[in-house]
Amino acid sequence: MGRQIFQSINAGLRGAVPRHTREAGLPCAEGIGPLINAQLGGSRRCILVSNNEPGEKVARKLAREGIFPGDPNFENVGVAERVMWPRVKYSINGKRDDGTALQGKYLELKGYSSGFSWSSGFSENIEYFRLNFLDPNEVARGDALNAIIPILWMMAGCRGERENPGPASKWFIPKRSPFAVLIDEKQFRAFRAKLAARSDIDRVFLVTDSEENFASMRRELGRGFECVQLYKSYLENFRINTLDTLSR
């Protein structure tokens, strides 16, 4: 059954996905995922990753004008900001930013009625993130928690509206997402009491450099939570291009 659905989707992909999305080069899972959810039910999710290069000819022209990567005029014409993100957004909203409705209809998946017009959009949520490098000094001081909250939100399943913690937080328990972050391990008991009031939370991030303390807190929380250790220098959790990772 699953193979039949996939074959039907794959065969009809070119016609099912609107031109403004198809030209962006979206693969099957990303380009037609919302349509599959709408027709077959379910809550499929995807992460679409793209660079933001403007193309060789445009990049050379910008360089002659003294415009280089990182400059707003360079980034604005990159494939992610100018093409990929707008077209994904238009597909979800069913209209362009100027309010113009998209014209056309999606093809039916074999055995499933459709009738979905491009202008209907989808009951889906989307987020756009820029992947940047963090200042190690800021991370070491613990000033970069907000920068990794989107990663924690995605690790927790991208569920609910994304929020950011307030200043000088001892813990972070978003109101609309089922995860929690203990920032000050000395506040564990108060944090645990807060968790007791939220039956929806299933993932907990504990900030501590001590493996022993992490194990103790995880044990006290019980099996109802999936616990993840975050080092106080958050950089250690998401560091890339180190000698260790490059040698693997």
List its traits.
248 residues, alpha/beta, 2 domains, 12 helices, 4 strands, disordered N terminus
Brief digest:
By secondary structure, the chain is of the alpha/beta class. The chain has helices spanning 2-16, 19-22, 28-40, 56-64, 72-75, 79-93, 136-140, 145-155, 188-195, 211-221, 235-238, 243-246; strands at residues 171-172, 179-182, 203-207, 226-230. The radius of gyration is 22 Å and the shape is flat.
Describe this structure in words.
The protein is an alpha/beta fold and 248 residues long. It folds into two domains: 2-120, no CATH class; 136-238, no CATH class. Helix content is 42%, strand content 6%. The protein contains twelve helices and four strands. It has helices spanning 2-16, 19-22, 28-40, 56-64, 72-75, 79-93, 136-140, 145-155, 188-195, 211-221, 235-238, 243-246, and strands at residues 171-172, 179-182, 203-207, 226-230. A four-stranded mixed β-sheet has the order 1-2-3-4, with helices on one face. Helix 9 links the parallel strand 2 (179-182) and strand 3. It is flat and about 55 Å long. The model is unreliable at 1-31 (pLDDT under 50).
